[in-house]
Design a protein that fits this description.
The chain has three helices and three strands. It is α+β, with helices and mostly antiparallel strands. The chain has a three-stranded antiparallel sheet, with no helix packed on it. The longest helix has 12 residues.
Length: 104
């Protein structure tokens, strides 16, 4: 099935597409280029100073914020959501989001 572009946001590098699934239902799909987030996290990881009281932990791509909110059933940036995100950022699959493996 072919996809049609609905919108593109150059700031977040997110493209929204619409297409039909196998049952003929319309599906809206969002795809975000996260390469800049990964590079930024690596750069900030190199700048980490454990002596500093505050430090950068992670830049989380928008689509993961939404996905994790759906997974945990909480609105983004609530206490419940933040607790879930802290666990996810520590998982091996998301190690590039927390390059210094800072325990949250």
């Amino acid at each position: 099935m072919s996809k049609s572009i609905l919108s593109y946001d150059p700031e977040t590098k997110t493209t929204d597409y619409i297409h039909l699934d196998g049952t003929g239902q319309a599906v809206i799909e969002s795809i975000q280029d996260v390469e800049s987030s990964i590079e930024f996290n690596a750069f900030m990881g190199e700048k980490h100073d454990p002596k500093n009281e505050r430090w950068f932990v992670s830049n989380i791509p928008n689509h993961l914020c939404v996905k994790w909110a759906q997974e945990c059933g909480a609105k983004p940036f609530t206490k419940e959501w933040m607790a879930y995100v802290k666990k996810k950022v520590m998982e091996r699959d998301f190690s590039k989001l927390n390059p210094n493996r800072i325990k949250l």
